[in-house]
Amino acid sequence: MYDSSSSGLKIPTSPQEEDKGEGKVYGKVFAELESVDLPLGTTLRSVYDDQPNAHKRFMEKLDARIRNHDREIEKMCNFHHQGFVDAITELLKVRADAEKLMGQVSDTNRRLQDAGREVKAQTEEVIRCRIQQRNMATTVEKLQLCIPVLEMYSKLKEQLESKRYYSALKTMEQLENIYIPRVSQYRFCQIMAETLPKLREEIKEISMSDLKDFLESIRKHSDKIGETAMRQAQQHRTFNSAVQKQVTLSCAKPLYGLNSRTPLHHNGLITEAADEEEMDEEVLTAQDLVDFSPVYRCLHIYTVLGDRETFENYYRKQRKKQARLVLQPQSNMHETVEGYRKYFNQIVGFFVVEDHILHATQGLVTRAFTDELWNMALSKIIAVLRTHSSYCDDPDLVLELKNLIVIFADTLQGYGFPVNRLFDLLFEVRDQYNETLLKKWALVFRDIFEQDNYSPIPVENEEEYKAVVSRFPFHDAEIEKQQFPKKLPMSQSVPQIYAQVKEFIYASLKFSESLHRSSTEIDDMLRKSTNLLLTRTLSSCLQNLIKKPHIGLTELVQIIINTTHLEHACKYLEDFITNITNVSPETVHTTRLYGLSTFKDARHAAEGEIYTKLNQKIDEFIQLADYEWGMAESDGRASGYLMDLINFLRSTFQVFTHLPNNNNDHAAMSGKVAQTACMSACKHLATSLMQMLLDPELKQISMGAIQQFNLDVMQCELFASSEPVPGFQGDTLQLAFIDLRQLLDLFMVWDWSTYLADYGQPTSKYLRVNPSTALALLEKVNRGMKDTSKKNNIFSQFRKNDRDKQKLIETVVKQLRSLVNGMSQHS
């Protein structure tokens, strides 16, 4: 019996069943072993893994199976032996036929080989040709793919050599996207593909180099571009001005034109001249002067390369740098108009180029960028012009600068740039222009005054009279009735001053042209500048003239007459301005000329100078006084210095009297001046004589000196009563010496009792004598009497009289002091 757990095979327990079962089991094993398809490992493992002695029984069964198979083979061989023998016999018979057949086949093969050798050679040739044909077809096919690539590459090289970089980039793009991918397996295409980025970089560098050359070129040509643009703007403005003049002429003919001091032309002469000038010169633009193709080319190249933003930033940065360079003026620009012109030309050229770039390209520069550049430039330009114009002291240069600024502004305004700030700047420049004009005309007025002889203008005949009247609005019926030769009341400076004021108005008008201002504004400008000329420049020149030491009394009187005529001429100046501007003087906001006050002030100054010079002359005579204050008795006649002074005054006032007084106004004026001067001289003389008596350095005065002084005052009173200047009523002129007269009478009569008794009464005989004045003079006389008494000791009765008089003086002195103290306490 076997244990069923030790093997996968169930073995029957009885001997018969055991033998029968082993046979089935080993039959399966042998069947598996005999099968060539199954693996033997599992089968053999089942045999050897069985119970002990299983191997032996397996070997026994295997031997039995072998013997069984041998028996079966033997049976089969025995069964087929006779057939095998028969077959061998037949095969031996066939052997001879086979050898014969083999010989025939060999012979046939040999003959066939010999016959096919030529066919083989031809076949091989055909095969080779077919291979070549196939290779050629393949080659042609591949070349047809490569030829367009090579042609495009060749085209690329030609484009690069001819500097058609934009087309070259397009060709590169086609090569990369269309042609090279078709034949990318070839080495040369790979080399091409590797070369294209390098070529792109070269194109970028070359185009950038061209752009730099372009920027350098426009920097050099900005002057020429600006000059051309400004010339065209000026021609356009001249043409429009000429047309406007013709329209104005067809409507009305004013006395003077705004742009010229001569009458306006007619019949289209100006317009024709302007047309001819424009036709003579072909109109040039920025494109005619500068080749912009580098910018377009570079822009397209960078756009194609996808780097447009880099190009835009570079271009704008470089243009900003160039703008700063253009806006930097030369240090001596203010010296000549050419310096300003070159400065403006460069700026105009710069912005003309930018305007062209703005409109010719899309987005390379924007309106915001150009506006930013212009605002920056405008601030710099205004600062530069404000600084450099302040250095100009030549009105002609300032005027040319103004014209340049106007053309500059008009030119850029035509390109769309705002220029209002430039016209505002022109008002500042106008003030500077007026200042330079005022300085220039100050020299003109000074020369006129220095060359004037300050005497009435002599006219010998009608022609000379008309020559003067044509230059100055003088009309006097009485003078016109007089026979030649005759004299006009004013001096030569009057018509010259009047003519120069008109010249100043013309010069001031020149600046107002082309400022795009209304006639009312121009009229206001002219009147204001003329007022400055009259009130500041001419007034200052007159004041300086009046103060000059070489100007005598006669000249001063003539100056007064001149200013009167100039004052009357102011209304003609207003009419002159009105005729120029065509603005009615009745307009509400029309400025009036201040010439009346200017000439009145000059007259008053001249009159004051007359009085001052007279007083100075009187002081000079007074300084010659040499009184002997201790004299015992007077000389019985007036002092020599005083007589000389009176003679001088008489001759001086005779000059006043003999001034031309054909005109009632002149006569009234000269009479008034003479009366005022005479009264002023008498008052000053009286004051000087009083100061001489009361001089603190004069300690004592004798009665003889008082008598001598009284004689001199009497001569002054005689002069006053002789009416040296007609027109005084009664003893008006003598009242100038009333203080001296009452003071001297008090001492000459020695009427102290009356003085003291009537003091303070309106009817007092000595009403004009001040107690302090009387006290001061009395003390000096007292000291003089004491000194005289000491010298005269001969007669005792004289000494007694002196003592009595001395006591009286002391008593009067006490009373006068009490009056003086009372006055001081009351005050």
UniProtKB/TrEMBL annotation:
Stretches assigned to the Exocyst complex component EXOC6/Sec15 N-terminal domain: 61-230
Keywords on record: Coiled coil, Exocytosis, Transport
Family matches, as InterPro entries: EXOC6/Sec15 (IPR007225), EXOC6/Sec15_C (IPR046361), EXOC6/Sec15_C_dom1 (IPR042045), EXOC6_Sec15_N (IPR048359), EXOC6PINT-1/Sec15/Tip20_C_dom2 (IPR042044)
One matching Pfam family: EXOC6_Sec15_N
Exocyst complex subunit EXOC6/Sec15 C-terminal domain location: 422-780
A GO BP entry: Golgi to plasma membrane transport
One Gene Ontology cellular component: exocyst
Keyword Membrane: no
Coiled-coil annotated spans: 98-125
Region of interest (Disordered), ranges: 1-23
The protein's role, per its UniProt record: Component of the exocyst complex involved in the docking of exocytic vesicles with fusion sites on the plasma membrane.
Family statement drawn from the similarity comment of this UniProt entry: Belongs to the SEC15 family.
Name the record gives this protein: Exocyst complex component
Lineage of origin: Eukaryota, Metazoa, Chordata, Craniata, Vertebrata
Gene this protein is translated from: exoc6
